[in-house]
Amino acid sequence: MDTELLLTFLMVARSGGISAAARALHRSQPTVTERLQKLTQHVGEPLTMRSGRGIRLTPAGEALLATAQRLRDVVDEFDDIVLRRQRLQNGVLRIAATNTVANYFLPQCLVAFQRQFPDVELQLRGGIIDWSDISLSDWDLFFLEGEADLEELPSYYMVTPWLHDEIMTIFPEGHPLLAQDDLSLESLMSYPIIWRERASGIRRSVEQVFRDAHLMPKQSIEVTGVEAVGAAVDAGLGIGFVTAAALRRRKDWRVNARRLPAPHGIQWTLYMARPQPIYQSHTIQAFLQFLDADAVHTSDTAAALPR
């Protein structure tokens, strides 16, 4: 049944007549009369009868009144939900990200987004090493350190570059190599290297640079997470590699940074997996627009660090 028939009947009952109902609904009197007649035919008995200049409900009309009111309440609730979601007064944004992205790239953006849209619930899961450990259907956006890190994405998702940054080589304070003016990757071969876990995008990028230079470090220590790399280098265990964004925020690390190989260093790209536009909620659309407006395509930290 066309719900408009029942809602029109409710307005006629509330207003006490066809003319008043037509004005309230912004419809013509013939339209309201036609709808009332169709509903009457559907029920199979009269719903209203004339009473002076207005109308009153028959027993059948009285029986339908409560149902029509419940329908009106449901429609109003539906309209309210849609409006609140369109205005971002409701909704959930679920983000899954690696350790580096969750700790050093997303927090400030998420705080600013939440300030602008305080009614949106934010859910962030960081520190993901193995993407097969999570249920992809539980999350909306994925921030990756490699373009092909997520192999089982739904067909309606797409992976696009999100942000470009630089990987810096960090040394403990007082390391003998810091005295050299012509540092190279080959200079590192005689010293222990602090590596991230094997799934790390930073590690994969650095290893590729070593392979391209036909070099293979022999001494190594493996830790998990960018914080562990910084702490290990701070303690003097070896030389490590961290994103420039981490250096900006971890001023407590007692390390010295260099750009290797000179002069361009190691550039890397972070990626985002998101639904295609037709599948994006209002919340996702707003956050993606927020990211575009707040984007930092190249870390400004790297430019300020020693070459």
Automatic annotation (TrEMBL):
Pfam families: HTH_1, LysR_substrate. Residues 1-58 form the HTH lysR-type domain. This is LysR family transcriptional regulator. PANTHER family: HTH-TYPE TRANSCRIPTIONAL REGULATOR, HTH-TYPE TRANSCRIPTIONAL REGULATOR CYSL. Keywords: DNA-binding, Transcription, Transcription regulation. GO terms for molecular function: DNA-binding transcription factor activity; transcription cis-regulatory region binding. It comes from Acidithiobacillus ferrooxidans. Belongs to the LysR transcriptional regulatory family. InterPro entries: LysR_HTH_N (IPR000847), LysR_subst-bd (IPR005119), WH-like_DNA-bd_sf (IPR036388), WH_DNA-bd_sf (IPR036390).
